[in-house]
C-alpha cells in the first residue's frame, strides 16, 4: 500500500545560485530596488515576487534602510581634505588642546518633532492621537554663536537679525576673546571657524590680523568635521525634551542654561573618533565639556586623518567599515602606511564593475549636454536593453540597441549617437532641476544587469552688461545676472575706488529685503532678485566712480562674481576773460572745470598774428575735477579785424563748445549808454514842452471865462 505524505512546504522559487546572484548584485549596487531584482530574475527565466526578494535578503542579514546623506564633494574638496589630514597627521595632543572651536547654529521651536513612530491600526492614521502637529518655519527660531576648547565651553551669544561681517567681528570681540581669557588658554592658541563668506571677508581677515590671532586653515565643504556640531546636537535634543511652548521658553532654556548635560563616556576612543568623523557626527556629545572627555576624544588622535580619508571617498558602507577596521589595527605600527593602505583599498573598490562612467561632470546652464556610459561585456553576453534613470530614480530614457524605433523617454532628453557598447543621452537644455546623479543600466544576457552612475553639476557664470559712463548728477544703472538663482544665498555689491579702498554698497539675501549701506541710502536702489541684479544710483557724484563687483554667494560652489566699472564725467562750462597787460597787448584766458580734463584750442580767423603759442596749465580740485587754464597773448589791433574763439573739447560732448572773445564790448557799451542818455533827455524835454503847452491852454481857458 502506497501512502502520499504532504510536503513540508512550498519549494523554493529559485536555486541557491540565483540567491547568490542577487546577493552579489546588492553588494555591488546597494541602491538596486526589489523591482530591478525581480526583472533580472524574470529575464533569466525565474518569476518571483518582491516579498520573496525581501525574505531572501533578510535571511542573509540585509534590510532596507534609508541612505545616509553626505556632503557632495568636488575633487578640489577631496584634495583639500587629504592635505589637511597629511598636515596634521603627527600633531601631538597639546596642539589640539590649543584649538578654540566655533560655529553658528539655528534652534527652532519645534525643530525636532519631524520624525515620531506610533502604534496604530491601518485606518487610524489621521486620528489626533496618531499625528504630530507641525508649525510653518518651525514656529520661530533663535540663532546662536558658541565656542569651546579642551578646557571647557566659552560664551554662548544670541544673534539678533541678519548677521553681517561687522556683526560677526563684534561677536568675536565681545565673546571670543573673553572666552579665551576665562578658559586661561594662554598664548599660542588657535582659532577655528568655517569658510562662511562673513568669516573669510577681507575686513574679517584684517581684524584677525590686527588682533594677532592664529586661524586654523579649514577645508571647504567640511561642516561635519568640526566637533562643535556634537554640542549643538546635544543642546537641541535636550531642549526638545523640555518641550518649550513659545520663544520665551526657548530663550530661557537656551540662554538661561536650564539645559544641563553630562559628559558622554566611551571606552573605545579610537572607535568613537572614527564614528565621529566618518558618520557625520552620529554620536551625542554634551555642551558641558570636561577635560576627561577631551582625553577620551584624543586617545587615538591620529584616527582623525583616517576618518578624513575615509569620508572624502564615496565607497559603500561595508567597504568603509572594513577600511576603518584595518586602519585601526595598522595605525599602531605605522600611521602613514595605514593612510596609504586606506586610500589604495578605496581606489581599488571604485574600479570594480563592468560599466565605466565619469564620476562627476559639470554642465553649463541653458546649454545642451551629453551624458555617456560605456559597458564592457563579458564573453557570451549580449546587450538587450539600455535604461537611464534620472536624479529621482525615474525612467529618463529606454531603448533597445537592436531596434532603432524603440526609443522612449522624457521630452527634454534625446538619444545621442554613440559607438558600440556605449550609451549617450543629450539633455536639450540643462537647468537647475537636472543636477544630481544619473544611473545608466545595461541589461545583459545571460549575466544580468550592470549599471553605472555619473553625477551632473550644473554651473553658471556671472555676466555683467559692461562698463558704464554717466554725467555727474544723472542716474546710473549697473546690472549683472546669474543663471542659477536656486543656488544663490545672497547678492552683494562692492565698490572699489581708484585708490583701492573697497566698501559694501548694497546686498539682497534670500527671504529678506534689499539692504543699502548708510553712505548710499536715499540715492541707491537694488532690485530684489537672485538672478538679475541691478544697482541704481541717482544722483551720481564723482566719488561714485570706480569698479563695482557683484558677488553671488552660492551653495555649494562658493562666491562667483563679475566686475563693471563706472566712469563719471563732469561737463565743462568754459569762460573767456582778457586784460591789457601793456599798450597794444591783450592777454586772453580761457578756463574750464571738468572731469576728465578738457583740451582747449584757440581759433584765430585768417592770418595768425598772435604773439606766441598759448600756455596751458592744470590745477587739481578737491572734488576730483580739474581746472584747465589756457592763456593766449594777441595784439589789440588784431581784434578789430578778425574773430578769436576758444574751442573746448571734452569726451562727454558730441561737439566742442566755442566761446568768442569780443574786445569791442567796452566801446559798444559806452555808445549804448550815451545813446540811451540822449534819448532819455529828449524824452524829458518833450514831456516838459507838452506840460508847458498844457498849462498855457489852461491859462487861456481860464482868462476867457473871466471875460
TrEMBL record:
SMART domains tied to this protein: IG
The molecule here is called Ig-like domain-containing protein
Q: Where in the cell is it found?
A: Membrane
Recorded source organism is: Coregonus suidteri
Which Pfam families does the record associate with it?
DDE_3, HTH_Tnp_Tc3_2, V-set
PANTHER family linked: OX-2 MEMBRANE GLYCOPROTEIN
Q: Mind telling me which InterPro entries this protein's record contains? A: Ig-like_dom, Ig-like_dom_sf, Ig-like_fold, Ig_sub, Ig_V-set, OX2G-like, RNaseH_sf, Tc1-like_DDE_dom
Residue ranges crossing the lipid bilayer per the database entry: 665-691
Specify whether Glycoprotein is a keyword of the entry: yes
Q: Can you cite an annotated GO cellular component?
A: membrane
Q: How does it sit in the membrane?
A: Single-pass membrane protein
Amino acid at each position: 500500500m502506497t501512502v502520499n505524505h504532504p510536503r513540508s512546504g512550498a519549494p523554493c522559487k529559485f536555486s541557491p545560485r540565483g540567491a547568490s546572484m542577487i546577493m552579489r548584485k546588492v553588494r555591488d549596487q546597494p541602491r538596486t530596488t526589489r523591482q530591478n531584482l525581480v526583472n533580472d530574475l524574470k529575464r533569466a527565466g525565474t518569476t518571483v515576487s518582491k516579498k520573496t526578494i525581501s525574505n531572501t535578503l533578510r535571511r542573509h542579514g540585509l534590510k532596507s534602510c534609508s541612505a545616509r546623506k553626505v556632503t557632495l564633494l568636488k575633487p578640489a574638496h577631496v584634495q583639500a581634505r587629504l592635505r589637511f589630514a597629511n598636515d596634521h597627521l603627527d600633531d601631538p595632543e597639546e596642539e589640539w588642546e590649543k584649538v578654540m572651536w566655533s560655529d553658528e547654529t539655528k534652534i527652532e521651536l519645534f525643530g525636532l518633532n519631524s520624525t515620531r513612530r506610533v502604534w496604530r491600526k491601518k485606518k487610524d492614521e489621521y486620528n489626533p492621537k496618531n499625528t504630530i502637529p507641525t508649525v510653518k518655519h518651525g514656529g520661530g527660531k533663535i540663532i546662536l554663536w558658541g565656542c569651546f576648547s579642551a578646557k571647557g565651553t566659552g560664551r554662548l551669544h544670541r544673534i539678533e537679525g541678519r548677521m553681517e561681517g561687522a556683526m560677526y567681528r563684534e561677536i568675536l570681540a565681545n565673546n571670543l576673546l573673553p572666552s579665551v581669557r576665562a578658559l586661561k588658554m594662554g598664548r599660542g592658541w588657535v582659532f577655528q571657524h568655517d569658510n562662511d563668506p562673513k568669516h573669510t571677508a577681507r575686513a574679517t581677515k584684517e581684524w584677525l590680523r590686527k588682533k594677532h590671532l592664529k586661524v586654523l586653515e579649514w577645508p571647504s565643504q567640511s561642516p561635519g568635521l568640526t566637533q562643535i556640531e556634537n554640542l549643538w546636537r546635544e543642546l537641541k535634543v535636550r531642549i526638545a525634551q523640555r518641550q518649550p511652548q513659545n520663544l520665551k521658553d526657548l530663550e530661557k532654556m537656551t540662554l538661561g542654561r536650564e539645559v544641563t548635560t553630562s559628559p558622554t563616556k566611551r571606552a573605545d576612543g579610537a572607535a568613537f573618533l572614527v564614528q565621529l568623523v566618518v558618520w557625520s557626527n552620529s554620536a551625542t556629545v554634551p555642551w558641558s565639556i570636561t577635560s576627561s572627555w577631551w582625553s577620551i576624544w584624543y586617545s587615538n588622535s591620529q584616527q582623525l586623518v583616517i576618518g578624513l580619508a575615509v569620508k572624502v571617498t564615496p565607497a559603500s558602507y561595508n567597504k568603509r567599515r572594513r577600511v576603518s577596521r584595518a586602519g585601526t589595527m595598522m595605525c599602531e605600527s605605522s600611521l602613514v602606511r595605514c593612510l596609504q593602505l586606506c586610500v589604495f583599498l578605496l581606489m581599488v573598490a571604485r574600479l570594480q564593475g563592468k560599466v565605466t562612467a565619469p564620476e562627476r561632470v559639470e554642465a553649463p546652464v541653458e546649454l545642451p549636454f551629453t551624458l555617456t556610459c560605456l559597458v564592457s561585456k563579458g564573453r557570451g553576453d549580449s546587450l538587450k536593453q539600455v535604461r537611464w534613470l534620472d536624479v529621482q530614480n525615474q525612467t529618463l530614457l529606454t531603448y533597445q540597441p537592436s531596434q532603432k524605433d524603440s526609443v522612449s523617454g522624457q521630452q527634454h532628453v534625446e538619444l545621442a549617437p554613440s559607438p558600440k557598447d556605449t550609451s549617450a543621452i543629450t539633455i536639450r537644455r540643462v537647468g537647475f532641476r537636472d543636477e544630481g546623479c544619473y544611473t545608466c543600466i545595461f541589461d545583459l544576457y545571460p549575466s544580468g544587469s550592470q549599471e553605472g552612475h555619473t553625477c551632473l553639476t550644473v554651473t553658471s557664470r556671472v555676466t555683467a552688461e559692461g562698463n558704464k559712463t554717466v554725467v555727474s548728477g544723472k542716474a546710473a544703472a549697473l546690472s549683472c545676472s546669474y543663471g542659477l538663482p536656486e543656488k544663490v544665498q545672497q547678492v552683494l555689491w562692492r565698490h572699489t575706488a581708484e585708490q583701492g579702498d573697497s566698501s559694501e554698497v548694497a546686498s539682497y539675501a534670500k527671504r529678506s529685503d534689499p539692504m543699502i549701506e548708510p553712505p548710499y541710502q536715499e540715492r541707491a536702489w537694488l532690485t530684489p532678485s537672485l538672478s538679475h541684479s541691478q544697482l541704481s544710483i541717482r544722483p551720481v557724484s564723482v566719488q561714485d566712480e570706480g569698479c563695482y563687483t557683484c558677488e553671488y554667494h552660492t551653495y555649494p560652489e562658493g562666491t562667483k562674481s563679475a566686475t563693471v566699472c563706472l566712469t563719471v564725467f563732469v561737463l565743462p562750462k568754459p569762460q573767456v576773460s582778457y586784460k591789457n597787460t601793456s599798450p597794444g597787448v591783450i592777454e586772453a584766458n580761457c578756463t574750464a572745470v571738468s572731469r576728465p580734463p578738457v583740451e582747449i584750442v584757440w581759433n584765430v580767423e585768417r592770418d595768425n598774428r598772435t604773439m606766441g603759442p598759448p600756455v596751458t596749465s592744470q590745477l587739481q580740485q578737491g572734488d576730483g575735477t580739474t581746472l584747465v587754464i589756457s592763456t593766449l597773448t594777441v595784439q589789440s589791433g588784431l581784434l578789430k579785424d578778425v574773430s578769436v574763439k576758444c574751442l573746448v573739447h571734452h569726451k562727454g560732448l558730441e561737439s566742442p563748445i566755442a566761446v568768442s572773445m569780443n574786445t569791442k564790448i567796452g566801446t559798444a557799451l559806452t555808445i549804448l549808454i550815451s545813446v540811451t542818455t540822449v534819448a532819455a533827455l529828449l524824452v524829458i524835454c518833450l514831456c516838459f514842452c507838452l506840460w508847458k503847452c498844457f498849462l498855457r491852454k489852461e491859462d487861456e481857458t481860464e482868462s476867457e471865462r473871466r471875460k
